[in-house]
Amino acid sequence: MLGILFNDRECKELDYVLRKELDEMLLDLNDSRLDGDIKTSIAKRYKVIFRMYARIASPKELSRYALNMRSYR
């Protein structure tokens, strides 16, 4: 297990970066032009980023990005 310390400003920046990445992946997952294999890869990455975001986000903010991953396989 690794640990890292962030000050408040760095934590806000990390929050911003993770939210933007999740937003971009949600757009890609909803893009009908992408095939299933690509969407599966994006969904796996989304899961990892989502877990990272869950460590710093409030439950209210987190609920915005929670989704049913079965619909993207």
How confident overall, as mean pLDDT?
90
Major sheet details: none
Listing every helix as H and every strand as E from the N terminus to the C terminus, the arrangement reads HHH
Q: Rg from C-alpha positions?
A: 14 Å
Shape: elongated
How far apart are the first and last residues' alpha carbons, in Å? 30 Å
Helix content: 55-70%
Q: Give the uncertain stretches in residue-range form.
A: none
Estimate what percentage of residues fall within beta strands: under 5%
| Number of β-strand runs | 0
Structural class comes to mainly alpha
Helical stretch tally: 3
Account of the 3D structure:
By secondary structure, the protein is mostly helical. The chain is 63% helix and 0% strand. Helix 1 runs antiparallel to helix 2. The protein is elongated and about 40 Å long. The mean pLDDT is 90.
Quick structural overview:
With 73 residues, this protein is mostly helical. It has helices spanning 8-29, 36-54, 59-63.
Q: Characteristics of this structure?
A:
3 helices; 73 residues; 63% helix; mainly alpha; elongated
